[in-house]
Amino acid sequence: MFFCPLFTPTLFRVNPPITYIRFLHAIPSALNIDIYLNDRLMASNLSFKKFTEYSPIAPGYYTLKIFVSGKTSNPIIDTSFFATPNNIFTAAAAGNLNNIHLKLIEDIPMTIVPGTTMIRFIHLSPDTPTVNVALTSREGIIFNNVSFGEVTNYQQVSPGHYGIQITAAHSGSVILIVPSTPFGPNKFYSIYAVGLSAGNPPLQVLLPLDGNSYLKV
Fold this sequence. Notes:
By secondary structure, the chain is mainly beta. The protein has 2 domains: 12-106, Immunoglobulin-like; 112-217, Immunoglobulin-like, CATH 2.60.40. Helices cover 0% and strands 49% of the residues. It has a 4-stranded mixed beta sheet with strand order 4-1-7-8, with no helix packed on it. A 4-stranded antiparallel beta sheet has the order 3-2-5-6, with no helix packed on it.
């Protein structure tokens, strides 16, 4: 029998690294869009406020092009990014019609204290000033001085029903109140502010369940 001292047989299979990505149309007043990743169609006719499902992709560099739906020339976004391994992302088309850009948001894989809920705030309303965000059944502000494009850290709260109040950080004036909404245990949520505070479509929030609630990387 031949024996090679430099060869060690694999005793278990190592799963290849994987990354998950979903897409969000957060450009107020923009038409529906088509999204291409490395020239592969990932989303067709995506309308404002809509998310795609998460898709698994291999880690690495990607080119991303976004077109008005049905077009394949003159992309409104033409950029590239690196998808790190074992991670989860939301790629948001954001900004206003004069300054459209890609906002890559990490849905941070992390442990959660059993029986608790994790919430963060993402400011994607281009005409809304810096804001404070409070949960109306809790005392005090939970997120302070969040400007357009910023993503807060997650905050731990008890599961339950919470209203959301968004106020201007400089004046304290109320910009938006969202009625009581359920937040379940052992889950991660992002509160996305989208739309316009002084125009149409009006300012509103999106409350998707983040992928780190149920995806394993």
